[in-house]
Amino acid sequence: MKIAPFLVFISIVLIIYGLINTYIFTRFMQCVPSGWQGRIWAIIIFWLLAGSFIIARFMERAYPCDFTEVMTWIGSFWLGAMVYFVLAALLVDFARLVNHFIPFFPQVFYADYQKTKLIALIITMGLVFLTVTAGFINARNPVITLLDLNIAKKIQGSKTLKIAMASDIHLGTLVGKRGASHLVEMINGLHPDIILLAGDLVDEDLKPVIRRNLGETLKNLYAPLGVYAITGNHEYIGGAAEAIAYLTAHKIKFLSDTVEFIDNRFYLAGRDDRDKSRFTGKQRKPLAEILKGVDPAFPILLMDHQPFQLSKPEELGVDLQLSGHTHHGQMWPFNYITNTIYEISWGYKKKGNTHFYVSSGYGTWGPPIRLGNRPEVVSITLHFQ
To answer: How many helices (H) and strands (E) does the chain have?
Structure first.
């Protein structure tokens, strides 16, 4: 990993994180009565919550333990709450700005303004708590998405291929034994011919995965044609070589800018993540080079974690590309951002003769919360001529 760019990135993130929390804290303290005896404890608790995620991330790398896991959970929930606290504060500030020029607040608000602000704070905290709770329940209950596609190519043997696909599992502290076991149950229950894991299997740091022995759970994944995976950006953040070695030892085969001819019926290609160069200084292979020598008469399936440059697979005759990465924003309203960045933020699209599916992902990154989308395992049935 390049140290200088990484330090610059971390510094920027910490500054932005600090400014957001300072803004929330300022609005919070304006609502708390100055003479309240618990004021000092409110200040201490606020900054412990605000700092818990940062503290936990550093501790997780240096000394993973039960205390670190507790701090990670607290900090991750705070990240989700922070998003909706800042949205609420911005909404109130916007209303106050409009009211300054076009008064519309009822006079009863000003009869006891401090009491009004305190009530507003209590209501906001209650709404944020309900929102975060609903998002957590949603994130813990993934669904199975069914997809039937026709591929206009002949194939030897069976004229159908059943794929179980998952991406963005983010195994670690937040997606632990329960999440991994549920994933295995969901996928094996589909009885797929092949299992494809489209990147971000681990959540950056491998230590919590090893500590909880999650690889042993993944070994229970079964499909006659095997379990294949590619790297995502989070494998590179935490150290791709170590993650690949660990998962390979637990019966998951990685495709690293390589292609395999499977069962003498179809090609499966897998690309290294596009962030490989940012973390290793090495470029991934161009797709044309990966597919060089592939017989286009056979179906060509491709896994590429980040769904950029979708015209390339279409030009090169890929029949199906599977991606993830976007989480479809994971939490509303970030889905509006991912819809702007990606041609497909979540779901299916066909371009020419190429089918694309971008999964919203199975796990979560940061907050263990999903709002505005469902976590999923994708069951894809391909029908050949």
So the answer is: 14, 12
